[in-house]
Structures are given as structure tokens and as C-alpha cells.
């Protein structure tokens, strides 16, 4: 079976580097599936999960902000933050979700509201990826 | 001449100081190791993002973005990266001196520029000079992660986009080696000098090159700043290590000198005692 190399890189260092048979990521325009031999592409990523399909298993990573660079034999995901499902600190994610919800309730102005909403989406994304319900 | 006890006291206290500086030197040395590793971990990210930005910039000449175009400068921002504490030798003073001389060269009044400060020393210094500090980040951890400085980088880039200022210069100490750090000036925004590397793949852009630049350029500018912070941290630990090493060396030199005069004073006291005894015995005969 043909495989493609996937690298997930963040400013704090590489997170993932492995051969997979398919990558599915949430881009700004929708979900995008990448198989080996894909045409070179660049697409911005939203807050979401990246699914890394191997022959008989699937790994999940929570990614927020950044973009995806595809080459025929290689996929590079450059994100401001990225965590594999196994590395996610569930307690922390839940805590920040709670904090964001509290901020939303308090409703202090436009900017804070947007930030809290983003924070909530990131935290929810982490929790979902951790629990594997995508 | 100082009494024996005085000299003894000075020796003990200098010894204690040197123990502290030696410990601080070792702490800095291990922090420097970590900081170098962090800076290394960041390299692949920076290289990749540079490559993609360059290939977009090279591939489509007609794509222009507000962050890539130079506009008439009414206000300049200076992003200065210093440390939070002293005991780092010339680390802070070098950088602040450079920034001040640049500012004096370029500007005649304090209204023409603003300061963004990462590090307490820089913030305090510019506040004392009566300059406008738009934002500052202090008490960064010794090994900052991207999340720690996201706030200030996002603001720095955001205020350029909304026209608060029209260009951003960044000053930091570039880590050359453990004993050498160089004050470096870098123009962060507008992004005019994106290097176009030779091997540029041509990409499909989803949805469009403009939309990608919209996401990519702020991220690129923010990573430039983060890279400088990591570089600055490595320099800070190196400078602190060197400063503490020379403090330790000076202390042991001082102890050597003091021990010498202690021995001399002791010898003088003994000689005097003997002379007194001999004199006393001679008087009895």
C-alpha cells in the first residue's frame, strides 16, 4: 500500500512524523482528504481534528491555526499548536473550556467575546479529539 | 593596616559570594543548554513557513498583501527584547544603547514612535525616558513556549494591520556563542525582504493565494518574533553565565590577595611578639 509522510510542526518543535496512507484535515473551505500522490497544495487550517489513517488504525491530532502544505510524497502541517490525542491533557482542556464558557456568560465586549469563543472551540476540539468522537 | 579579624571576615564573605555566583553560573549553563535545544526545535517550523511564504511570493507576482507593502511611515514601532532581571553583564545595556542611538538618529520627537517591550528591564528603561510603551510582556518563563508570547506577538502584528504604526523594527541579542552575543536589528513589518529560494514548488492554493497569505503572513511575522525571543533567551542565559563566571573569577582573585595580606599580618604579629619577648628577656639581664 502506498504511503505518504506526514509531519506536524509547531513553533515548540515537531509533534508528529510518520508514514500514513491517508490524511484528513479540516481546512477553511471544508474537509480535505489527502492520498499519496496529491497535487502540491497549500490550504489554511481551521480549528479541528486531523485524522491520520494507517493501514488498520487511525491516529487523531488536535490542531488549531496554521496551514497545510501538500506535496506528492509529503504532507506538512504547520500549526501554532498541535497535540496528538495521546498527549492531550484532558483536565486542562476541560478547565479552559469552563473558563471560556464563564467568559462568554460574563460577556465583556466584542473582542473578549470573540476570544472566549475561539478558546472554547479550541478546548472543545481537544476534548473531542481526546475522546475520539469526531 | 587592617586587623587580622577584619581580613578574615572579608575572606569569608567573599568566599560565600563566590559560592553563590558559581552556583548561578552552573544554573545558567544548564538553562543555556535547554534554550539552545528550544531554538533548535523551532528551526524546522521557521524553515518550512519561510519556504511556503517564499514560494507564494515568487509564484504570483500580482498577489500583494497589506503586510507586504511599504506605506508612508508616520509611526514606527520598536520591539525590544530584554531580560527581566539583571546580573547578565552587558546584555541589557548593549541592546538599550543601540535602540536609543537608532531612535535619536531617526526621530526628533517622542510622538514619532512607540515601544513594544518584551522583558522588564526594557520596559522600565523606556518608561523612565518618557517614551510611549504600547504593550509589554514581562515575567516570561526561562524557556518560553509559543503560547507564552502569543499575546504580544498577536498585538504587535494586529496593530500594524490596523494602522497604529507603519513599520516594526525588532531588537534582540543574537546568540553567536556562549561568550559572544550580537545586538541585532531586524525589520519585521512590512515583510519586504522575503527571500525567494531557488527550488520553489508551484502549489495549488485552496481557496486562493490571497486567502492563504491572509493566514500565513501574520503567522510568519509572529514566528519571526518568537524566533527572536528564543534567540534572545539563549543569549540571556549565555550572558548570565559569562557574567557569573567572571564574578567567580574576580572573587577568587580577591580571596588570593586577601589571603596574602592575612598571612603577612599574621607573620607581622608573630614577629612583633617575638621581638617583645626578646626585648623583655634582654631587659631582665
Automatic annotation (TrEMBL), chain A:
Function noted in UniProt: Produces ATP from ADP in the presence of a proton gradient across the membrane.
Top-rank taxon: Bacteria
Keyword Signal set for record: no
Name of protein: ATP synthase epsilon chain
MF terms (GO), sorted A to Z: ATP binding; proton-transporting ATP synthase activity, rotational mechanism
Transport in keyword set: yes
UniProt record similarity statement: Belongs to the ATPase epsilon chain family.
Domain ATP synthase F1 complex delta/epsilon subunit N-terminal: 5-82
UniProt-listed Pfam families: ATP-synt_DE, ATP-synt_DE_N
InterPro entries cross-referenced by the UniProt entry: ATP_F1_dsu/esu_C_sf, ATP_synth_F1_dsu/esu, ATP_synth_F1_dsu/esu_N, ATP_synth_F1_esu_C, ATPsynth_dsu/esu_N
Sections of the chain in a coiled coil: 90-133
Cell compartment(s), UniProt: Cell membrane
Membrane topology: Peripheral membrane protein
Domain (ATP synthase epsilon subunit C-terminal): residue spans on this chain: 87-130
GO cellular component: plasma membrane; proton-transporting ATP synthase complex
From TrEMBL, chain B:
InterPro entries to which the protein is assigned, alphabetical: ATP_synth_F1_ATPase_gsu (IPR035968), ATP_synth_F1_gsu (IPR000131), ATP_synth_F1_gsu_CS (IPR023632)
Major place of residence: membrane
Coiled coil: none
Membrane topology listed for this record: Peripheral membrane protein
GO terms for biological process, alphabetical: proton motive force-driven plasma membrane ATP synthesis
Keywords: ATP synthesis, Cell membrane, CF(1), Hydrogen ion transport, Ion transport, Membrane, Transport
GO cellular component, one term: plasma membrane
Gene Ontology molecular function: any one: ATP binding
A Pfam family recorded for this sequence: ATP-synt
Record has Lipid biosynthesis as a keyword: no
Subcellular location: Cell membrane
Cited Gene3D superfamilies: 3.40.1380.10, ATP synthase, gamma subunit, helix hairpin domain
UniProt-listed PROSITE patterns: ATPASE_GAMMA
PANTHER family reported in the protein's UniProt record: ATP SYNTHASE GAMMA CHAIN (PTHR11693), ATP SYNTHASE SUBUNIT GAMMA, MITOCHONDRIAL (PTHR11693:SF22)
Cited NCBIfam families: ATPsyn_F1gamma (TIGR01146)
Family: Belongs to the ATPase gamma chain family.
Subunit-structure text: F-type ATPases have 2 components, CF(1) - the catalytic core - and CF(0) - the membrane proton channel. CF(1) has five subunits: alpha(3), beta(3), gamma(1), delta(1), epsilon(1). CF(0) has three main subunits: a, b and c.
Function of the protein: Produces ATP from ADP in the presence of a proton gradient across the membrane. The gamma chain is believed to be important in regulating ATPase activity and the flow of protons through the CF(0) complex.
Protein name stated in the entry: ATP synthase gamma chain
Organism name: Planococcus massiliensis
Top-level taxonomy: Bacteria, Bacillati, Bacillota, Bacilli, Bacillales
Gene name tied to this protein: atpG
Amino acid at each position: 500500500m502506498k504511503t505518504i509522510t506526514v509531519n506536524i510542526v509547531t513553533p515548540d518543535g515537531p509533534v508528529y512524523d510518520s508514514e500514513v496512507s491517508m490524511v484528513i484535515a479540516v481546512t477553511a473551505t471544508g474537509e480535505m482528504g489527502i492520498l499519496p500522490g496529491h497535487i502540491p497544495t497549500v490550504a489554511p487550517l481551521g480549528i479541528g481534528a486531523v485524522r491520520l489513517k494507517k493501514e488498520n488504525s487511525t491516529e487523531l491530532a488536535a490542531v488549531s491555526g496554521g496551514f497545510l502544505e501538500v506535496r506528492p510524497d509529503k504532507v506538512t502541517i504547520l500549526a501554532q499548536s498541535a497535540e496528538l490525542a495521546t498527549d492531550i491533557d484532558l483536565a486542562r482542556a476541560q478547565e479552559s473550556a469552563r473558563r471560556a464558557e464563564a467568559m462568554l456568560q460574563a460577556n465583556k465586549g466584542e473582542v473578549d467575546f470573540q476570544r472566549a469563543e475561539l478558546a472554547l472551540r479550541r478546548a472543545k476540539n481537544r476534548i473531542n479529539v481526546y475522546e475520539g468522537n469526531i | 593596616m587592617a586587623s587580622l579579624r577584619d581580613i578574615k571576615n572579608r575572606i569569608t564573605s567573599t568566599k560565600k559570594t563566590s559560592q553563590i555566583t558559581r552556583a548561578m553560573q552552573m544554573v545558567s549553563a544548564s538553562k543555556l543548554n535547554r534554550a539552545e535545544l528550544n531554538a533548535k526545535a523551532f528551526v524546522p517550523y521557521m524553515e518550512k513557513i519561510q519556504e511556503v511564504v517564499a514560494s507564494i511570493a515568487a509564484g504570483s507576482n500580482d498577489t500583494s498583501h497589506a503586510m507586504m507593502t511599504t506605506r508612508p511611515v508616520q509611526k514606527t514601532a520598536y520591539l525590544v527584547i530584554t531580560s527581566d532581571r539583571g546580573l547578565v553583564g552587558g546584555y541589557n545595556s548593549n541592546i538599550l544603547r543601540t535602540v536609543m542611538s537608532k531612535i535619536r538618529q531617526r526621530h526628533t520627537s517622542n510622538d514619532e514612535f512607540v515601544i513594544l517591550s518584551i522583558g522588564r528591564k526594557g520596559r522600565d528603561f523606556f518608561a523612565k525616558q518618557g517614551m510611549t510603551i504600547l504593550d509589554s510582556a514581562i515575567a516570561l518563563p526561562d524557556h518560553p513556549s509559543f503560547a507564552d508570547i502569543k499575546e504580544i506577538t498577536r498585538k504587535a502584528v494586529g496593530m500594524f494591520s490596523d494602522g497604529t504604526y507603519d513599520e516594526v523594527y525588532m531588537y534582540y541579542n543574537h546568540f553567536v556563542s556562549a561568550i559572544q552575543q550580537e545586538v541585532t536589528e531586524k525589520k519585521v513589518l512590512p515583510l519586504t525582504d522575503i527571500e525567494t529560494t531557488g527550488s520553489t514548488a508551484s502549489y495549488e492554493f485552496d481557496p486562493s493565494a490571497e486567502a492563504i497569505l491572509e493566514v500565513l503572513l501574520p503567522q510568519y511575522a509572529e514566528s519571526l518574533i518568537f524566533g527572536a525571543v528564543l534567540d534572545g533567551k539563549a543569549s540571556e542565559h549565555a550572558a548570565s553565565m559569562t557574567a557569573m563566571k567572571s564574578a567567580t573569577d574576580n572573587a577568587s582573585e580577591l580571596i588570593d590577595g586577601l589571603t596574602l595580606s592575612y598571612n603577612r599580618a599574621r607573620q607581622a604579629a608573630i614577629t612583633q611578639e617575638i621581638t617583645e619577648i626578646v626585648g623583655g628577656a634582654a631587659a631582665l639581664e
